[in-house]
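Write out this protein's structure.
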Amino acid sequence: MKVTLTVERLVHEAKDFALCESQHRERSLFGVTDGKAVGTYLEHKFQDCFQRKYTYAKGSSAKGIDFPNLGVDIKVTSIRQPQSSCPFKSARQKVYGLGYSLLVFVYDKKDDRKTRTATLRINHVVFVEAGRTADYQTTTGILRILDNTGNADDLVAFMSERFLPLDDIQARQLADEILKKRPAVGYLTISNALQWRLQYSRVIEHAGKVAGVHRVV
């Protein structure tokens, strides 16, 4: 009898999966250097491990994230350069977050030439709540302006200096929203591109130390 998947159960499964996968030797990954291929392997294997146990809505390219009903997306990245991409929706995501939570697996891949297998040692699993997925430098800069009695002009100037991808009207609208709704500190580094480039070093560093950024492994 399947049970409904919840965020708590998802995180619990992620911990068990990481501990098990860190001991597994995988022939198909030996010699593979493509991070996207490794990420696809790990994501699919993770979902396969609990599909028989839980009922849940699977993600799709249209829905954009892996667990749309839970508001959670999986990210897999190498410890050597912990980053990934995600769809760009608006510059507002840098201020108020991506709009969903992240379950981040950070691995260190080791090839064994004798057995011709690869092992993905999962060094970190971090769950970042949606409210903490904004850009660190952007949010902390905005909060400094607000704490220094800054106004909409100050915020617009700051957004221009940070090269946020919006026009003058959008910048003014976002500044007015910020004055009404103070953002929380985000812990991602989000680089401007056609897709957002998410970097996770700060998330790994602060996991378990700040509210909303949880260390699973």
